[in-house]
Design goal:
Blueprint: H1 3-39, H2 41-49, H3 63-92, H4 98-136, H5 147-164, H6 167-176, H7 182-187, H8 189-203, H9 209-248
Helix pairs in contact: 1-3, 2-4, 4-5, 4-9, 6-9, 8-9
């Protein structure tokens, strides 16, 4: 394809992606109220445990409408993500070799799966610990939780955990370029645990040790998964090098 043909194809992929996001956003706005009810459930459970009113508030006339629209856009992006990734794939696939296409598809699927796993872990495991602790520190005051501020809070927690769960993918690329090896990762395990503990202490929005340990456990597990991924990468590179040497002889 010529440079002009590439530009035409890129424009086509961008238009298709934008249309998919727009359609997804319309669907998202239609179902956003049910999704909002699902998102606020951990907060309501924490309030009920403390025998408090479980109704969240909004502080401006347009607060709830803005929440519905914002949530609809986020849902639209999520719904359109597979189609958008497919459009990106259609644009870059013609310039890749067969083994490169296989590697890219594996990377996309694994990254998407790990990101969803991180969000699920944050919603079902981390949020109950965090919210129970924060609501338990009410002191002599009565908490009035704003739906907009709660949404910003939960977005930071869930997206942060989703990105943290991409650790095996990061280690995969570091091993692919020869920056780290399984031996290096194992040898520096104690330093990695120390760094994970520091990250957990900084990212965890509560100072209690239990929440920090709950946060650390999957990160350490992901580190070991990353060691396994690095071992597979090094083994495959050694096999290719051996086959190349045999072919040269």
């Amino acid at each position: 394809m010529s440079f002009f043909d590439h530009l035409v194809d890129l424009r086509k992929r961008l238009i298709n992606s934008a249309l998919a996001i727009a359609i997804g956003a319309m669907v998202g706005v239609a179902i956003s109220q049910k999704v909002i009810g699902f998102i606020v459930r951990p907060m309501q459970d924490a309030l009920r445990k403390m025998h408090l009113d479980d109704k969240l508030i909004y502080t401006s006339p347009t607060g709830y409408i803005n929440m519905i629209i914002t949530m609809g856009i986020y849902i639209g992006v999520v719904l359109a993500a597979p189609f958008v990734l497919y459009q990106i794939w259609l644009f870059i696939a013609p310039g890749l070799y067969k083994h490169e296409r296989r590697a890219v598809s594996t990377f996309v699927y694994s990254s998407f799966f790990l990101f969803l796993a991180g969000i699920s872990f944050g919603y079902y495991v981390m949020l109950p610990y965090i919210l129970d602790f924060l609501i338990g520190l009410q002191g002599p005051f009565k908490p009035l939780i704003s739906i907009n501020e709660y949404f910003d809070f939960i977005l930071i927690v869930l997206l942060g955990l989703g990105l943290i769960f991409e650790l095996p993918v990061l280690i995969f690329f570091l091993a692919l370029f020869g920056i780290v090896t399984p031996r290096f990762l194992w040898k520096n395990l104690r330093y990695a645990i120390l760094v994970i503990a520091i990250i957990a202490a900084i990212v965890t929005p509560t100072p209690d040790a239990m929440t920090m340990l709950v946060f650390m456990a999957p990160m350490i597990g992901l580190y070991f998964v990353g060691m396994g991924v690095a071992w597979m990468v090094v083994r495959n590179k050694a096999k290719r090098a051996a086959m190349a040497n045999q072919g040269a002889q």
